[in-house]
């Protein structure tokens, strides 16, 4: 796995221009911490090629959408697609499209224990507050040979509006009728137990520093920090470890034209069950707030490049799953509906 610990300490990353090329355009975005390692790495590759400076704030999906709504950034990034109500609340029409997919892993901190199996029922019961100690018989039953300590489980969740939370709680609603009826899913929920961490870096940090901690985090953060994580029993009854192959399997299937799809609890027997796409959101008409045509063109060219093989290869290098060719084609068609003064920016 690539070492990307640097990202865990950064709330705001600026891809500095070290190129001799002249380009005064600067772009900004905010949102998902789930996908921040991919974006910052790709932006650092893009800037020397074009001279376009790009800043990205990993502030969480909810805050990213708000920043776009307030028109203080050029793009928002979210691991939860926008609902009809959210789109209606924006000051102007937006477009959204996925850029890659990834896995949400269940990470834990138990000295001497590096592997663990979890069923959907046990996982839900931990987050419902029904299983509170690591020595619970339900955990021992599915993990023969593992000696769990007599230690309270410190449940960790996100404290901010989070697309990672959206993916995780969407999964819980599919496997636990009780969770679905009491708490539902979204970027924020009324957690019955646990402590909050801000962003994926905050949750990963809390888990790594707290003996007995257990929480959900985007896989890249667990890989980078070498935090152990569990295999999850999928819909086919197979315990699956999060990996490139098992996350890819979760993303198989037809993408709807509006790209709004959740891929948790996949029926594919090879699929890891807690996975999701991540989206970028732009205003469909780019001539607003005195934005120049050059800004709009730079923004669209950036995201067109992010869908190309060079950028998608960056995603795979740091443990995300690139988009299938059919989804790339759909995304590019969406980008070409974005206009400046009513005229398409990309041909």
Q: What attributes does this structure have?
A:
37% helix; 3-stranded mixed beta sheet; 14 strands; elongated; 20% strand; 9-stranded mixed beta sheet; alpha/beta; 14 helices
Tell me what you see in this structure.
With 347 residues, the protein is an alpha/beta fold. The protein has a domain at 26-102 and 277-344: D-Maltodextrin-Binding Protein, domain 2, CATH 3.40.190. The protein is 37% helix and 20% strand. It contains 14 helices and 14 strands. The chain has helices at 5-8, 36-50, 61-69, 84-89, 120-128, 137-142, 163-175, 177-182, 199-209, 219-225, 244-250, 293-306, 309-317, 325-335, and strands at residues 12-15, 26-31, 53-58, 75-78, 94-108, 117-118, 154-158, 195-197, 213-218, 231-233, 239-240, 275-283, 339-340, 343-344. It has a nine-stranded mixed sheet. The protein has a three-stranded mixed sheet with strand order 6-10-11. α2 links the parallel β2 and β3. It is elongated and about 65 Å long.
Q: Give the name of the CATH architecture of one domain.
A: 3-Layer(aba) Sandwich
Instruction: Give the helix level as a range of percent.
Output: 25-40%
Number of strands: 14
Strand order of the largest sheet: 1-3-2-4-12-5-9-7-8
